[in-house]
Amino acid sequence: MDTVTVAGVTVDTRHWIGGQRVSSADTFPSVSPIDGEHIADVHRGGPVEADAAVTAASGAFKDWSRWTPQERAVVLRKLADLVEENLEPLAQLETRDNGSLLRSHRRGVMPRVAMNIRFFADFAVEQLHHPVWETRGHENHVSWDPSGPTVIITPWNAPLMLATWRIGPALAAGDTVVLKPPEWAPLTASYFADLTHQAGLPDGVFNVVQGFGPEAGAALTSDPRVARICFTGSVPTAKLVAKAAAENLTPCSFELGGKSPTVILDDADLDLAVDLAIEQYDNAGQVCLAGTRLLVQESIADAFAERFAERASQIRQGDPRDEETQIGPNIHLDHVARVQGFIDRAVVDGASIAYGGEVNTDLGPHYFRPTLIRNAPAGSEILREEVFGPVLTMQTFTTDDDGLELANGTDFGLAACVVTGSRDRAESFCKHLVAGTIWVNCFFVRDLAAPFGGSKKSGIGREGGLWSFDFYADVKNTVYAPNGWNKDGRNEGTK
Ligand code: NAD
């Protein structure tokens, strides 16, 4: 079967290469985490499909790269409009495929998908002014030129949102794209491919190769024709991608995992602190930015813990399609087992489970209960490694300096959240925290113009606004000699 109807939405399960649907001999199953139902057999690409997609993207680049930013923006704005018109099928499909909340997809995630496309198309037109200045009479020009075929590899926790946050600027910059969506939630990428066609994107400008990382992903990242690789995923996989890219010196942008702190100072508004801490369970903890380490100043720790436990006990876990549900399932049974493994080892290490710590079997094997771990010994795995499930830890500290040391005490540096009533204390923390993004008394506010990325092992590079174009484009400096042009059109150069 080349098409399948999922949640009332018909989607093609084949690859999208060079403006055509392409089959593979093998398929892989897509299983819904909501109820474990096998919802689709998706065509499974490898080196052959990867080669075809990079060939298509290379061929299309010659023409697409010569379109003006204005011409590209016309098609990309149309694509954003189509995403908005298809918001409901996209939301339904994504929820069925990856188990995230339907209401989040409807109200936040899918509108953001459209914004990812429109914002960068507009940015290329309105903000990428080519600066010109003079150096000893010479004219300096700077331009952001298209760079070539770009491979984008994404994880399953927010598949289409994370993909379009790269597809938007890459296409707006004049690159062509090959997307490798995640094997645990591949379906919206295929639906999106149809929208790119309807929008009028020329054949080969956008391609989708589905499949597993070691097969399709490895083939794409080792192709010497690829000009840019944008990878979002885990640190171990990033090391494999970096090795493959190193062979060809292909520039990479890495957005990786986190173990971010939520620092709650003793002058914080406790209600706000509890609200922000509870938010860290969003998407069943499958959020790279989640501030999963609650670091609470000793003098308010008991009061905070009491209110937090009360609120956590009221969290409604259930079917992500229900409007009332706050936390849905985790993506895959292998992932649930991985989360359980972290909890079991934490207990062996001496930590205690304040609540949760197991699957909610009333709901099904994918629904790991919201969990809080306390008393984990310093340096233990649960305090160092990313769990990527609904698991928070709580630690206390006495002085602000101690809190800062705890906050910076992992190999990650993606984000941090600081809750305090004092601007001075906030500024002092923010100055010394090592993180790509810091929120003070708020969480998850993300402006597409702002830089985004991770410090330490959380990533390499920044994207967002101009930072995206600095990566996807080839930034060029052209210098004209000062002597003017003779009547034959030749410049006499610097003498
Ligand atoms: P993962 O690293 O297992 O897989 C990510 C993608 O890489 C998938 O599409 C996979 O097929 C592909 N892949 C696997 N092996 C590959 C290889 N050898 N070559 C090329 N591609 C390969 O990660 P995951 O489990 O899908 O996602 C969870 C991780 O993603 C977490 O660590 C999370 O923090 C991170 N993440 C980071 C951000 C961010 O913006 N920093 C956003 C979301 C998720």
Written account of the structure:
- The protein is of the alpha/beta class and 495 residues long.
- It folds into two domains: 3-256 and 458-478, 3-Layer(aba) Sandwich (Aldehyde Dehydrogenase, Chain A, domain 1), CATH 3.40.605.10; 261-440, Aldehyde Dehydrogenase, Chain A, domain 2 (3-Layer(aba) Sandwich), CATH 3.40.309.
- Helices cover 39% and strands 22% of the residues.
- It contains 15 helices and 24 strands.
- The chain has helices at residues 47-64, 69-85, 87-98, 102-126, 159-172, 187-199, 213-221, 235-248, 270-279, 298-313, 333-348, 381-384, 400-407, 423-432, 465-472; strands at 3-6, 9-12, 15-17, 20-22, 27-31, 38-43, 132-135, 138-146, 149-153, 176-180, 206-208, 228-232, 252-255, 261-264, 293-297, 352-355, 371-374, 391-397, 412-413, 415-419, 437-440, 455-456, 459-460, 473-480.
- Helix 2 (69-85) crosses helix 6.
- The chain is globular and about 85 Å long.
- 51% of the residues are buried.
- The model has no long low-confidence stretch (mean pLDDT 96).
- The protein binds nicotinamide-adenine-dinucleotide.
